[in-house]
User: Fold this.
Amino acid sequence: MALTDDEFREEYKPLYIPAHFEVQDTQQNKIVFALAQLGEGSAADVITELETLQPGITDDQLKAITKTVLADLYDKGLLKGEEHNGQMQYNLSKITEANDGSTDAGEGLTGLS
Assistant:
């Protein structure tokens, strides 16, 4: 099924990362917030963080939703991830270290003639 332009923009809009954990927020926003707090983690790590943020929140339904949300966001390219020991480790691709490369405009560029 082909998406209209508006449907595509809605489906693949940039990932919203909440600034604060809100109990009334959507499950997706809670999951993304928990992942942001961790920096990187598996679905199980995110579930543990959710339990820390809101004790008593964890149940079988939330575990399934967390796995589905993370996999869907990964499939859309909104999260990065790598498999380690049979588990996907997700992250938000935030830059955490300064670039130590040169920014000298005087350097010659190759391949530009």
